[in-house]
Design brief:
Number of helices: 20
Strand content: 15-25%
CATH class of the largest domain: Alpha Beta
Mean pLDDT: 94
Structural class: alpha/beta
CATH superfamily of the largest domain: Metal-dependent hydrolases
Number of strands: 22
Low-confidence stretches: 14-22
CATH architecture of the largest domain: Alpha-Beta Barrel
Distance between the termini: 33 Å
CATH topology of the largest domain: TIM Barrel
């Protein structure tokens, strides 16, 4: 405390000497409270003063009060904690906002609940040509494969398509299959699978990976109003959880990119945004020039990221594995042949894009790391801060490579506990040895790699505090005791707060602007109602964000 006090006194003297005869600037806002700055040189403070959205001072309360004028707003936080805004490095914010207006099946734990929501939605939307929506949890249905007949009973006349919560499967009715011309003679796409009745070989109603496109291509495009309204609503939801920065992991439509740019410029979306475009293995070469023409960097929004899917997901047996799923010869689906991924990532890196890769299986992860290594050998050291997301099953030989190759590891740590996905659909198909490699956050951290946090919303909760708790406990949020998933892979609370602030900012090229509460940075600041360091770890997810400031402006209040 003595050294910190000396630093604060020196700081105040320097401000006095270099502020025009000792006259400090007036602050628009002064925040008083327990401030956890994420600045290693000054980790704690009593006050922060803000002017025009920029942080003027961080330190002692009495010194901060010297910035007070008649117009200054004072905000005291007697309890809890003040933090930099959270940064989510893997979220589908735009589509999540749109999904909220459709048939929403998220957080339903039984088939009865799912059928009830579908029936109610269909009754209340009689004029729509399609019934579309999603969010159903794969383990709720036998073998994770819901059938068309169950939808036919509810809606036989209109096509229905309902995407799973993980986004890698779609549940359709007979009308959708008929419209798309899918029957027992239809072959599986190269990078997808049509689930079939074991007796008749007829499509059973579940489509995996690229098989979803067979029906999805008939869906009507969203309107500009739907896109903008969905994005505004989703951004407000993010602010309510203290999120002030995001990487949207794949927009898919030009209208979505324009919505981010235009709404950011008009200040209808209060986020620092990095948006990404999808790269398709079959046509990325033809699309590259167009992708270059669409990128931009504005004050609060940039589009300079390319998103690739290395593989699928373990619960759908589409994640690419080095060894087969137990009891089969199936190794999953590798979306990019290794040589093709090598060339593509090298080209995107050379063109100046940041590359963001979905990789879940140990083979998908390895070929992606190999491709980054290949690109580095061809182009030289990276400056693009490439990133891999999900990284569920990392072979021990590959865990040090994130640091060696300077690849950011974006973990969705909320998934790292023994839920039904893990106990029913992952461990049984991987076996004991490989299941020891699931979400090795602690091991990757020990290598010195950059670790960030992402929600993958709407796949899972948008609240960073849920994911932070699970990373610390490896248990279901709110559980004091009970089964934990590989507790040796747990990490400390400081690590996860850094992942969602400092390292998140670094991964999005924002470290000079945000990520910590420091003089000269923008005032993206949040208040928590409790100090997460002062409560049991299993209560972290119950902590609430009470206020969110973006550029010094209050954009959310509980």
């Amino acid at each position: 405390m003595i050294n910190l006090s000396i630093k604060m006194i020196i700081q105040s003297v320097l401000i006095f000497l270099f502020s025009g005869c000792g006259q400090k600037q007036s602050a628009d806002l002064i925040i008083i409270g327990n401030i956890y700055t994420m600045d290693t040189d000054q980790p704690n403070a009593e006050a922060v003063a803000i002017k025009n959205g920029e942080i003027l001072f961080v330190g002692h309360r009495k010194i901060a009060e010297g910035y007070k004028r008649f117009s200054t707003k004072m905000c005291e936080v007697p309890n809890g904690m003040v933090l930099p805004g959270f940064i989510d490095t893997h979220v589908h914010l735009l589509w999540g906002g749109i999904e909220a207006t459709e048939c929403d099946l998220h957080n339903l734990n039984s088939t009865e609940e799912i059928y009830t929501v579908i029936r109610n939605y269909i009754k209340s939307h009689p004029g729509e040509d399609w019934v579309r929506g999603g969010g159903w949890e794969v383990p709720v249905f036998p073998a994770g494969s819901p059938r068309k007949e169950w939808l036919d009973i509810i809606e036989p006349d209109r096509p229905v398509i309902l995407y799973s919560a993980d986004g890698h499967s779609a549940w359709v009715n007979s009308k959708s299959l008929e419209l798309a011309g899918i029957d027992r003679h239809t072959p599986d796409p190269l990078k997808g699978r049509i689930d079939r009745d074991p007796d008749t070989a007829e499509p059973s109603g579940t489509l995996r990976e690229d098989a979803m496109i067979l029906v999805g291509k008939f869906l009507p495009a969203y309107s500009k109003k739907q896109i903008e309204t969905g994005l505004i609503n989703a951004a407000q939801k993010a602010n309510s959880f203290g999120v002030t920065g995001i990487l949207d992991a794949g927009i898919g439509e030009i209208d979505g990119l324009y919505a981010y740019r235009n709404l950011s410029r008009s200040k209808k979306v209060n986020l620092r945004i990095s948006a990404s475009q999808y790269a398709d293995p079959s046509n990325w070469r033809k699309s590259l020039e167009k992708m270059k023409s669409l990128r931009f960097i504005d004050k609060n929004c940039r589009m300079n990221t390319v998103k690739l899917f290395a593989d699928g997901v373990i619960e759908g047996r589409t994640a690419a594995l080095l060894e087969p799923y137990l009891g089969t010869e199936d190794r999953g689906i590798l979306n990019w042949p290794p040589d093709s991924m090598n060339v593509a990532i090298t080209a995107f890196d050379k063109a100046g894009f940041q590359v963001h890769v979905h990789a879940i299986g140990d083979q998908g992860i390895r070929i992606t790391l190999d491709a980054f290594e290949y690109a580095r050998d061809i182009n030289g050291p990276f400056g693009k801060r490439h990133m891999m997301a999900h990284i569920q099953l990392i072979h021990p030989d590959d865990q040090p490579r994130f640091n060696e190759l300077d690849i950011t590891a974006s973990f969705q740590s909320l998934w790292a506990y023994p839920d039904d996905y893990i106990t029913q659909m992952t461990i049984p198909v991987l076996g004991a040895q490989r299941s020891e490699w699931l979400y090795p956050i602690g091991s990757v951290e020990k290598t010195g790699a950059h670790i960030t946090g992402g929600s993958d919303w709407t796949v899972s909760s948008l609240n960073p505090l849920d994911a932070i708790e699970v990373a610390v406990t490896r248990r279901e949020p709110g559980k004091r005791a009970g089964n934990a998933l590989l507790p040796g892979e747990a990490v400390g609370l400081p690590t996860m707060l850094k992942a969602y602030t400092v390292d998140g900012a670094y991964s999005l090229f924002l470290e000079d602007k945000v990520g910590s509460i420091q003089v000269g940075k923008r005032a993206d600041i949040i208040f928590l109602d409790r100090n997460p360091f002062s409560i049991p770890p299993h209560e972290i997810s119950s902590v609430k964000v009470t206020h969110t400031f973006f550029d010094g402006k209050l954009v959310y209040e509980q």
